[in-house]
């Protein structure tokens, strides 16, 4: 079976009817279609890889505990963990989202076929390079690792450039994300752990900016649609001025936390950004969505941003132990939960399924919430010793994302239920 590229005039996952016409056959009658469906659209391989890697990377990290400073695939385990969760796990989720969202934003054809396969392989090679960091030259690790994000930009860049839209700056975010990955690798090469830590903080800050911008659009939009669809009259209050101020404050915090994470000015910016995020959420009517898990999880995920920022401010200002895990409130809470929330929703919508999650995914939402709460608060408040807290939080995280993989692997690997392409 010849595999056309994504630029072909006919969607490659639609088989030509030998008798004439373009009838879409049942996938049972079309082995070729069934075989290549995993690369029919950008969300399919990358959402699945993000879910699998969320399990694998945390299992490896928990298995290394408590020796977090020992050599771990050629790096201190703490830095390997931070890099792979941000540039590996979150990087895959960002790719899946952008490859799916850009066609919707620009009204152009989606990304599939060989270009998507090549990009997927580039991500996998980057992960394998980090697993072989103790045997491969660092230059080769860097070459493999730094190939992925430029490949993503090459795919989505022309579509964004051809149409005038407000999402073009996302290419600059990708560039900044790639540069921070390069800075991390340079810090590893020069044995400068402070430089590595700065790169990881800066990358996490960029992820918070992305969630602030994109989440600030989709959370109220999805909430309004769901409430109105249930016959609940509501008005989403999301003033543009408040949105711009919140984004600006989050960008300022992202810069400050990368450069000087313990400075008092950083605490002030974090507190201001937390307040703006909190006010912003008040207008989104989240309390009305308690009977809609696929919606309330978006609100819960976004809520970890003001929580994490407030914890950061308190940690700097007072040094109290219970505020010290602000990084995990943002990384595991805001990013980890938002990724699960968006993947479970987008995969349903883009495969022709109703926007309603089953009981197992609701359990996954709850397990992930508990994982973050344990990681952020259990040891710092004296509820658990540090090592048991790490293992419990890691186990809950693995359970949550393991459920996602179990439930969504068929959704992501098999054709759409409505037999449409993509």
UniProtKB/TrEMBL annotation:
The chain crosses the membrane at residues 43-65, 85-102, 114-132, 138-157, 169-187, 199-220, 241-259, 265-282, 294-314, 326-348, 360-378, 390-414. It comes from the Bacteria. Keywords: Membrane, Transmembrane, Transmembrane helix. It holds the Pfam family NnrS. This is NnrS family protein.
């Amino acid at each position: 079976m010849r595999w056309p590229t994504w630029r072909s005039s006919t969607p490659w996952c639609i088989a030509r009817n030998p008798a004439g016409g373009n009838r879409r056959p049942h996938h049972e009658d079309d082995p070729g279609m069934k075989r290549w469906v995993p690369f029919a659209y950008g969300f399919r391989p990358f959402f699945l890889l993000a879910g699998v890697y969320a399990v694998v990377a945390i299992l490896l990290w928990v298995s290394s505990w408590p020796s977090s400073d020992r050599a771990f695939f050629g790096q201190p385990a703490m830095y390997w963990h931070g890099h792979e969760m941000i540039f590996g796990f979150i990087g895959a989720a960002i790719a899946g989202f952008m490859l799916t969202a850009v066609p919707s934003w620009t009204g152009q054809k989606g990304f599939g076929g060989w270009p998507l396969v090549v990009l997927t392989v580039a991500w996998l090679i980057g992960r394998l390079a980090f697993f072989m960091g103790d045997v491969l030259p660092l230059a080769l690790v860097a070459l493999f690792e730094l190939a992925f994000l430029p490949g993503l930009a090459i795919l989505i860049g022309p579509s964004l450039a051809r149409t005038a839209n407000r999402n073009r700056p996302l290419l600059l975010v990708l560039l900044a994300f790639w540069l921070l990955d390069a800075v991390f690798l340079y810090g590893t090469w020069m044995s400068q752990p402070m430089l590595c830590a700065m790169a990881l903080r800066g990358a996490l800050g960029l992820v918070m900016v992305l969630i602030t911008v994109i989440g600030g659009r989709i959370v109220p939009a999805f909430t309004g649609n769901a409430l109105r669809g249930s016959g609940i009259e509501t008005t989403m209050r999301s003033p543009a001025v408040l949105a711009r101020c919140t984004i600006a404050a989050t960008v300022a915090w992202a810069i400050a936390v990368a450069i000087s994470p313990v400075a008092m000015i950083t605490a002030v910016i974090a507190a201001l950004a937390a307040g703006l995020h909190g006010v912003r959420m008040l207008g989104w009517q989240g309390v009305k969505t308690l009977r809609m898990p696929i919606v309330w999880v978006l609100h819960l995920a976004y809520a970890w941003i003001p929580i994490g920022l407030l914890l950061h401010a308190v940690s700097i200002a007072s040094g109290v132990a219970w505020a010290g895990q602000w990084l995990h409130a943002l990384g595991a809470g805001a990013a980890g939960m938002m990724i699960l929330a968006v993947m479970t929703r987008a995969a349903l919508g883009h495969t022709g399924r109703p926007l309603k999650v089953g009981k197992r995914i609701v359990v996954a939402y709850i397990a992930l919430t508990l994982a973050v709460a344990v990681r952020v608060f259990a040891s710092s408040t004296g509820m658990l010793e540090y090592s048991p807290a790490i293992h419990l939080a890691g186990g809950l995280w693995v359970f949550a994302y393991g459920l996602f993989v179990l439930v969504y692997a068929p959704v992501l690997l098999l054709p759409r239920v409505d037999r449409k392409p993509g």
